[in-house]
Amino acid sequence: MNDRADGFRLDGRILILGTAPGAVEHQLAGQDLTLAEAGPLRDKISTNEITPLPALLHYGKALARESHTGTRIGNDTPLVQGVFEDRAVIVLVAGYAMARGHRANMRGCQSIWPVFD
Question: What is the per-residue pLDDT across 10-32, written as a single tens digit (0 to 9) for each?
Answer without folding.
Answer: 788 899 999 999 999 999 999 99
